[in-house]
Amino acid sequence: MGVVTVGELKPSISGKRTFRPSSSIRHATEWPISDVSSDLAVEVGASTFALHKFPLVSRSGRIRKLLLEAKDSKVSRISLPSVPGGVEAFELAAKFCYGINVEFTLSNVAMLRCTAHFLEMTEEFAEKNLEARSEAYLRETVLPNIPSTIHVLHCCEALVPMSEQINLVNKLINAIANNACKEQLTSGLLKLDHTFPSKNKPTMEPETPSDWWGKSFNVLSLDFFQRVISVVKSKGLKQDMISKILMNYAHGSLQGVGVRDPQVVKGSVLDMEMQKKQRVIVETIVGLLPTQSRKSPVPMAFLSSLLKAAIATSASTPCKSDLERRIGLQLDQAILEDILIPTNSAQNSHSTMYDTDSILRIFSIFLNLDEEEDEDSDNFIDESQMVCDFDSPGSPKQSSIIKVSKLLDSYLAEVALDSNLLPSKFIALAELLPDHARIVSDGLYRAVDIFLKVHPNMKDSERYRLSKSIDCQKLSQEACSHAAQNERLPVQMAVQVLYFEQIRLRNAMNGGGHNQFFFGQFPQRSGSGAGSGAISPRDNYASVRRENRELKLEVARMRMRLTDLEKDHVSMKQELVKSHPANKLFKSFTKKLSKLNALFRINSIKPIGGSETRFPFPKRRRHSVS
Predict the structure, then answer these.
(1) How many angstroms separate the Cα of 21 from the Cα of each of 54, 74, 112?
(2) pLDDT of residue 546
(3) Widest Cα–Cα separation across the chain
(4) Cα(453)–Cα(445) distance, rounded to whole angstroms?
(5) What is the mean pLDDT of the chain?
(6) Is residue 143 a contact partner of residue 152, using CB atoms and an 8 Å limit?
(7) Peptide bond into 537 cis (omega under 30)
(8) Minimal CA–CA distance to 159: which of 199, 110, 206, 126?
(9) What local confidence, expressed as pLDDT, does residue 588 receive?
(10) By the 8 A CB rule, do 114 and 159 touch?
(11) How confident is the model at residue 395 (pLDDT cuts 50, 70, 90)?
């Protein structure tokens, strides 16, 4: 073990001469060095280090000032109670002062950087001091790599506020954002080269996916994670990448939400703290989601899980409303499991199993969105386009509505099993969709039948109103047969089913035609509502719509012809009155014209669908000649 000579300790404290340890000290592995008796005790927290003044003051400006400001020139003890990183950080810094090799790692570089600032170990007191060495390691090793930067940023959480004061946190966050956007651009260029390969350069696929570093964010605290995502979004990172990062973070931080620990008493302080922590996480993640749109990159399953967590943790109303609107915008992408949202009070025997109020709002958002689109599109539709059918089964909007109608029928069948569900809420859901949303009403009928079976004590008025939500003309033959014998249905419903079934059979015997009801004949449908014949329900629906359009055009032509005939009638009558006011031939002629007029009247003609045609002119009265 080497010995520090007297010449090395002689220079004054205020001098700038650097302490140069002997070669044996530089390679020493034993700590602390005990060959020379200690002349300074440094207290760091509960620990005391027996050190030497000169090695410390040669590199630390803070220790130098403490010794200079001391009243006693022979001070032998100083206290450093708030060293960033505590005892471990000071020990590494002291070793560095003694010239012992200190290895920089991802786990200690942030701590050493903060400690160097706290002890003022700058270039002013020694060359290649601890601050410069730690900055070099950050610049060369940490900042170019996203996972390394995230790891160091995680270490900074325990070093606040010092890591904030030296701007280390912001530097790391900006490095993450810049590298993420740079990697995104590089990935795009690689894909472009793969699509349009050059002759001299072979095609290259990225070895790792562009979001390979996304899971590294799971180690960050919520505050740091929120700051990183906000900066990354402002830098222009793609929304689908942000969605994946949010999903990974939520999966790691929200596991077990809604599942209570049996060892934690419900309503206790610990339970309330856990719920509060989870609530803050949910609200923060929702606030970081990409912009709301129908083509949002956020998967429906993730939105549904967030809504379930928001309800379980009693999140704020704006948070739940935001999620409900996002789900409503993408409702045609949902499956049954996505909308089975449990209530918050599952342990209460008098509460419902599922939150039907939230689902009612979600479906209303979807339907109102379609109405808004219709209003916007009406302002730009030309009259020449009025013949086109934008609600045909093949159109995107109509197919989305049909998907949503099937989803709602499945949901109704599921919640109908809940004996605590009020009839008023079930009726509100059953009456929610417009008439054109369902091609077949078998799914709704099944859900209503289940609800009536589970709720036998319903009022007659509620039972009748619920049955009215079913369109009997859209029931398959099997469903009609079941409904006609169903004692749970009101008598009016059974009579209506028999009436439409009789009309359907009559039309089938007569070979069909334009007199059949809209959706009135489904000989090909099975009990499930799926087409079992050669003609599918969608094809049948489309053909009926085409016939309806053709009939409307024919009505318009006949209306124009009728208008011309009535004009000719009036003009001829006026001419005959002027020339032969008392001629009997005129009277017989007017009678024949009146019969001809009655022949062409089309007030009784109705387009398929049952809606009467309104004429833009009033019905004319016959005028007596006398």
Answers:
(1) 11, 23, 21
(2) 67
(3) 150
(4) 12
(5) 75
(6) no
(7) no
(8) 110
(9) 58
(10) yes
(11) low
